[in-house]
Amino acid sequence: MPEQHRTGTSTSSKGVRARDTSADAGQEAVTQVGPEEAARTACDWLQSFIVHRIEGVCAVRRTEEGWCVGIDVLEVPRIPDTTSLLATYEVELDGSGGPAEYRRVCRYHRGTANR
Hints:
Elements: E1 7-11, E2 17-21, E3 30-32, H1 35-47, E4 53-62, E5 67-76, E6 85-93, E7 99-109
Antiparallel strand pairs: 1-2, 2-3, 4-5, 5-6, 6-7
């Protein structure tokens, strides 16, 4: 009797998608990182490089190579708070969800509107 091979996709409650390919004997299951996991990884990784406080994630987008996460950071706290200096950093993650690079893309005062 011929052996049957099953290929399926399952998604966990945390948005991580794993593809089970029984036909690929000896190979590990392929895991793709979801947007929540990408944002969490990017914040943790960026925090290990900078000493400033992370305010939050302002963008998460899928790229051809993986993920690009925009993170707002409080660089210079001031009183009143509306004059504090913030920056937006972009963290690039590769296809497996590992950090590849980061860069500061802009600086702005908290009280200013987007231009």
